[in-house]
């Protein structure tokens, strides 16, 4: 049979809203592959011989959004690699992307014909809870951006650049919002409700 066209759910929300945590739980319960744009960028930053390592490093510390050419290539490769290994794996959670207009533009140019975006899963969480979670994690995460200075910038970038993208999808009726300030299991119960309703 023909390979299935990749089916994508964009997972968005502020820094520390719980995107990664909830994606991990989704993967345990549903047939999705989790791709975190941030994780892919951090891996690329650490890869020997990477041409974009230094740029990625400085952008992440500054809470700025890396030029989409870099991110989209990492995402595309990861999707292709996944589907090459297993044709059944055509459902993707793309976590932390698209974060701004540049990201959206890049996705449209490179991926619009190659994948279907089913909906946006939006983890809605107030800034203070986001900051507190990241600072708590920062005690042993080793992440260069889990500190007060970087977090101020990440929140700023989120409000200025990412919220407008969520609003754009909202106008298309594509956003499924979850109150992410509650505990992990309560949040996941809502996530389940959404995924079950969306069919699979
Ligand atoms: N936690 C989670 N859920 C909880 C709950 N319900 N109650 C209590 N605690 C909860 O969770 C964060 C912390 O909170 C953890 O300690 C967790 O145990 C706890 P996590 O699930 O990791 O939240 P998440 O939303 O994934 O937070 P993350 O820090 O990963 O979000 P960001 O969006 O800031 O980070 P990301 O890795 O996506 O991006 C980092 C940087 O990469 C960006 O700032 C940017 O510089 C760059 N980037 C790009 O340039 N382009 C991209 O496309 C993507 C990233
Ligand atoms: Mg994350």
From TrEMBL:
Residues involved in CMP binding:
103
Q: Main localization of the protein?
A: cytoplasm
User: Where are the residues of the annotated region LID?
Assistant: 136-146
Compartment list? Cytoplasm; Nucleus
The task this protein performs is described as:
Catalyzes the phosphorylation of pyrimidine nucleoside monophosphates at the expense of ATP. Plays an important role in de novo pyrimidine nucleotide biosynthesis. Has preference for UMP and CMP as phosphate acceptors. Also displays broad nucleoside diphosphate kinase activity.
Residue ranges for the region (NMPbind) are: 36-66
Name of the protein in its database record: UMP-CMP kinase
Gene Ontology terms: biological process: 'de novo' pyrimidine nucleobase biosynthetic process; pyrimidine nucleotide biosynthetic process
Self-association and partners = Monomer.
Q: Which family does it belong to?
A: Belongs to the adenylate kinase family. UMP-CMP kinase subfamily.
Give the residues the record marks as binding ATP: 16-21, 137, 182
Give the EC class as a word. Answer: transferase
Give the cofactor note text: Binds 1 Mg(2+) ion per monomer.
One GO MF term: AMP kinase activity
Portion held of the full protein: 65 to 264 of 332
Q: Which UniProt keywords apply?
A: ATP-binding, Cytoplasm, Kinase, Nucleotide-binding, Nucleus, Pyrimidine biosynthesis, Transferase
Q: EC number(s) for this protein?
A: 2.7.4.14, 2.7.4.6
Q: Does the keyword Cell division apply?
A: no
- What is recorded about the protein's domains? Consists of three domains, a large central CORE domain and two small peripheral domains, NMPbind and LID, which undergo movements during catalysis. The LID domain closes over the site of phosphoryl transfer upon ATP binding. Assembling and dissambling the active center during each catalytic cycle provides an effective means to prevent ATP hydrolysis.
Q: Name one GO cellular component term.
A: cytoplasm
List membrane-spanning regions.
Answer: none
């Amino acid at each position: 049979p023909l390979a299935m066209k990749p089916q994508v759910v964009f997972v968005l929300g502020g820094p520390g809203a719980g995107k990664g945590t909830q994606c991990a739980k989704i993967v345990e319960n549903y047939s999705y592959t989790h791709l975190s744009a941030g994780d892919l960028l951090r891996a690329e930053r650490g890869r020997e011989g990477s041409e974009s390592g230094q740029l990625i490093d400085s952008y992440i510390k500054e809470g700025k959004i890396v030029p989409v050419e870099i991110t989209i290539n990492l995402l595309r490769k990861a999707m292709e690699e996944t589907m090459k290994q297993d044709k059944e794996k055509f459902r993707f959670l793309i976590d932390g992307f698209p974060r701004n207009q540049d990201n959206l533009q890049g996705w449209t140019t490179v991926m619009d014909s190659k994948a279907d975006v089913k909906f946006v899963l939006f983890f809605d969480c107030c800034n203070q809870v986001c900051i507190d979670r990241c600072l708590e994690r920062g005690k042993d995460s080793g992440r260069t951006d889990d500190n007060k200075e970087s977090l101020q910038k990440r929140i700023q970038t989120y409000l200025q650049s990412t919220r407008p993208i969520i609003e754009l999808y909202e106008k298309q009726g594509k956003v499924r919002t979850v109150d992410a300030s509650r505990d992990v299991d309560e949040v996941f119960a809502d996530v389940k409700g959404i995924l079950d309703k969306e069919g699979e």
